[in-house]
Amino acid sequence: MRKDEGFVSRLKLLIAQFGSARAFARECSVSESAIRKWKDGISEPTRDKLIAMADAAGVSVEWLATGQSHREGNSIQQKPTEKLLYQLNQLLEIPNPTLEQTEMIHHLSKALRALRSADID
Q1: Is 100 in contact with 108 (CB distance < 8 Å)?
Q2: Bigger pLDDT: 90 or 23?
Q3: What pLDDT digit, counting tens, does each position of 41-100 carry?
Q4: Alpha carbons within 13 A on the beta-carbon side of 37
């Protein structure tokens, strides 16, 4: 099976949002071994598992599967977590981040945790 690097990258961001593969798996009601297989590119999640992961993380299935945002008319509608994950992903791809970029990574991570806590409450 060919590894979809984009999906794997987005999955790793979601795992990081939950703190661990185990915590993310528990929240999605899937096995931790399934999460690891998807992360390693050994297998791909079924549609119902994609939906469960997207719902648990507060992102759209389209973004999780393709990296694209849901489109309505000519405008792109992104969930708040998708925007933060996209920005965080862009910063994490920088080879040698500056102090300002490192601080931005910290602030985006903190905002993701706050959004996740707000969704749980």
Answers
A1: no
A2: 23
A3: 899 999 999 999 988 888 888 888 888 765 444 334 456 677 777 777 777 777 888 888
A4: 12
Read off φ and ψ for residue 43, nearest 5 degrees: -145, 175
Q: Which residue has the tokens 């648990």?
A: 56
Domains by residue range for the chain, with CATH: 5-120 (1.10.260.40)
Q: What amino acid occupies position 117?
A: S
Residue 59's closest CA among 19, 115, 117?
A: 115
What is the CB neighbour count within 10 angstroms for residue 85?
Answer: 25
- Are 53 and 14 spatial neighbours (Cβ–Cβ below 8 Å)? yes
Three-class secondary structure of residue 22 per DSSP:
helix
Distance between CA atoms of residues 56 and 80, nearest Å? 14
Rounded CA-CA distance 108/91 in Å is: 10
